[in-house]
Amino acid sequence: MDQTPPRDGSEHQSDSVEQSSVASNDQGSSPSETSSPSHSSQRRRRGSRGGQGRAKSAGEPGALSSENPEELPEPMREGRMGSQEAREKALVKKPQIGDTMPVPNVPPPGPAASSPSGSEQAQPASKNNQKRRRKSSGEKSQPEDNKSAADNDKGSAGSNSGRSRSNSRRRRRGGELSAEARDQRRGRERNGKPIGRYFMCVQVREGITQVAVLEGRNLIEHYVSRPADDVSQIHGNIYLGRVQNVLPGMEAAFVDIATPKNAVLYRGDVQYESEDIESGDSDPRIEQILKNRQTIVCQVTKNPIGAKGARLTQEVSLPGRFVVLIPNSTTYGISKRLPDDVRRRLRNILDKVKPEGHGLIVRTAAEHATEAELTADMRLLLEQWNRIEALAMEAKKPTLLHREPELAVRVIREEFNADYRGVVIDDRRLFEEVRDYVAAFNPELADRVEYYDAEAEGLALFERHHVHEQVHKALDRKVWLPSGGSLIIEHTEALSVIDVNTGKNVGTSNLEETVFNNNLEAAEEIAKQLRLRDIGGIIVIDFIDMEVKANRSKVIETFRDALARDKTRTQVFDISELGLVEMTRKRIGEGLLTEFSQECPNCSGRGVVVDHSLLD
Predict the structure, then answer these.
(1) Cβ contact 225:404 at 8 Å
(2) pLDDT score at 469
(3) pTM of the entire predicted model
(4) Which of 193, 275, 548, 567 is deepest in the core (most CB within 10 A)?
(5) CA-to-CA distance for 151 and 410, rounded, in angstroms?
(6) Helix locations, 16-142, DSSP H
């Protein structure tokens, strides 16, 4: 195909939001079809490994010459991926409710779910809700609100428990939570002990901190942080940078941010005032906006990878527990994952508390937040931004203005909710810091943060919860499937490749069924491995060939459903005639394997040692 997936596979955005203005530039054309009926007879044989003799594509046009030692991260090309329909079809849809994890399929606590006369009370409640909707839709004056009310009318056949949750939120007065809302925040309990789908272990050792997220007993995410990560793990940090040189041909600029490698700022990430442009162009070029030696405030959106420097943006964002502050912006939005009635309530609060001259985005975690909590969170972020501005005014050279909290606090800020049955930390200082943080923003869950004394227990935290053995398996190139098949995962400079094999799986009835079941298992396991190993960029998966078109569609559907649990944005395209699946996953770091490995000094990472003596 003539179509090139984006390198990142995602925009830099942690929550799906509804913003006041969205610009979308589709610059590419629809991909051309290269297959024809005459080629159907030449399809490769099932089980054969295609592509070994295919010629590789030439280097990308516009690559840097050898005179410039710097390497640019690949810019996002999402607008050049063909038609809008193709992009929307490839995008994996996320769950509508839940910040980073899907909500468990259990009824919420409260009297609405256990009322014996629920069927008799449902009809009056429905009539009252309809009256409220008609009244609220008549009071709205903005077209966007009218649209939300209309969408809510279409979904008026919702469950009684949903109406009960809506009514309980309306009963809040003066920032106080109702008893039912507090129960929802606190999460479920059994025999006085908290229960939940997820569990988090934080192990601290000298020079390294590891965070493991388990679903049941299975490891699904693993994070690693080291003191040296101020150089390699700087995603989210804010710097005062100095422009070193502007490259008009690349529509980018190298910026010194006091790290070993200069970072890169692309034209699309530059912020400017129209009156500052001397030429008066409505769409000025980057050399008209930025000048050498100019100082700018910027934020890292992508960590440095290999020889490529970090990627920057001038649109700074400060994430809190409930809101994201975007200084000097008009951005105004609410997470799309929230129900319509919750979004209307939060929109009314935003109209009253939105700071002058700054943008604000309400996160999914704010579903049950009160006005007082949103205001307190926003004020903390405003104070943080004022300190950053003061440091930027005083600084005379490139320097770090704001560092993201350490790994454990970041993960808990993004992940921790009532679906977690607990967080266990084996370091006293970090435990106290995390406990105080959770107590400040979500006191109902503070008792789920516990300290683990490894000396008293006689066993290390990761050994107690069988994390170490699962990490060992995640570092292997071969993954076994339940029925005896296997996956082979390899990494190259341009992309990652996953090969699906039947291995020991010989099936029972016929070859097509054996291959189909093996591919279904592989689709589920690949989604887990991508998330656990944090594999990003372009990924090509070689499923075993299936003759039946319905089977190919079922495998892709299963794969997309499994990826929907992953909070990282992904795009998956249909299986090609060669049995290959092309996909992208947003790439921020270098992945789990890089955290536990180093380049081989003998082969320089190539995997083979060339015997040059044979050439003499």
Answers:
(1) no
(2) 92
(3) 0.66
(4) 567
(5) 35
(6) 84-90, 111-114, 118-139
